[in-house]
Amino acid sequence: MNVIITGASRGIGRELVKRYSKKAHKIYAVARNEKKLKELAKEFKNIEPVVLDLANLEDVRKFGKSVKNVDLVICNGAISLPHSPSFTPFEDFKKTFDINFLSIHALLEGVVPNMKKGKIVLISSLASLIGAPSSMPYSASKRALNSYAQSLRNLLAPDIEVINILPGFIKTDMTVKNDFYMPFLMELEEGVDEIQKAIEKGYKEYAFPKRLYYLIKLFNMLPLSLQDKLLQKVAK
Ligand SMILES: NC(=O)c1ccc[n+]([C@@H]2O[C@H](COP(=O)([O-])OP(=O)(O)OC[C@H]3O[C@@H](n4cnc5c(N)ncnc54)[C@H](OP(=O)(O)O)[C@@H]3O)[C@@H](O)[C@H]2O)c1
Q1: Could you identify which of 6, 14, 92, 199 might form a hypothetical disulfide with 77, taking C-beta atoms 3.0 to 4.6 angstroms apart as the criterion?
Q2: pLDDT tens sequence for the chain (236 residues)
Q3: If you measure from the C-alpha of residue 216 to the centroid of ligand 1, how many angstroms do you get, rounded to a whole number?
Q4: Atom number in ligand 1 closest to CA 127
């Protein structure tokens, strides 16, 4: 099995590399930090470090076209700007969309035509289900990803499975900087167990932890005026 994992140098991506290195023939481990990727290649088997900035969409397209016969693509690399009540500058907004959303199509444009069968995994977020004012670009980029996942799944069925995963809070560098209460915060291993289960069982869409997912679903059933009041309270 040939695998591509983006965001492989840290957090969820690194843990996925570690687990799939036991099963894969080759893993293309994509991230910017060359030193961390080299350490990863020393520690685990079958890793090919790919130093790539997902914000550089032309480089991502080139890489996608250069890889043949991939069986599993895990689009995991992403950024989240620090939560802020101020209006996001355009440059930061664009960067978030380039990395979290457009880089995925830039990669898959080259990879998909060379894939006969296999799985494409998109790592979205429960944050995609709520437009929190303090994380506007992140939530919007992940909401766009949910729509992309649905289109892609039905475009590529039945040969290529598309799996969209919506995690809640997991302890990584991305969440360590958050200074607000994160309900049902999970340890890295626990979160990646859930992600791996969704990949291996081939769930079309998988949101976890269920308690937080159902709370968000309930929130989304409230009248908009009440949702807005609550979101404005949290934003202040
Ligand atoms: N942690 C959570 O609570 C949580 C919850 C829901 C969803 N998620 C999603 O899960 C995925 C992984 O998150 P994480 O928590 O593991 O984040 P993380 O610890 O911050 O790691 C992010 C990874 O993405 C890579 N990355 C960031 N910017 C990049 C760029 N411009 N080019 C190439 N690689 C880049 C980083 O590598 P380099 O810095 O070396 O480039 C790193 O390997 C993301 O899609 C995130 O949105 C996380």
Answers
A1: 6
A2: 999 999 999 999 999 999 999 999 999 999 999 999 999 999 998 999 999 999 999 999 999 999 999 999 999 999 999 877 788 999 999 999 999 999 999 999 999 999 999 999 999 999 999 998 989 999 999 999 999 999 999 999 999 999 999 999 999 999 999 888 999 999 999 999 999 999 999 999 999 999 999 999 999 999 999 999 999 988 76
A3: 23
A4: 6
Number of domains in the chain: 1
The CATH number assigned to the domain holding 82 equals 3.40.50.720
- Joined tokens for residue 54: 């997902």
Domain encompassing residue 87? 2-235
CB burial of residue 83 (10 Å; 0-12, 13-18, 19+): middle
Minimum CA distance residue for ligand 1 atom 42? 7
Cα of 130 from ligand 1 centre, angstroms:
20
Which residue type sits at 58? E
Closest residue by CA, ligand 1 atom 41: 32
**Ligand 1 atom closest to residue 6's alpha carbon, by position in its atom list:** 34
Q: Record the pTM.
A: 0.97
Span from the CA of 57 to the centroid of ligand 1 (angstroms): 17
Q: Cα(222)–Cα(214) distance, rounded to whole angstroms?
A: 13
Compute and round to an integer the Cα radius of gyration of the chain. 18
Q: Give the Å distance between the CA of 56 and the centre of ligand 1.
A: 16
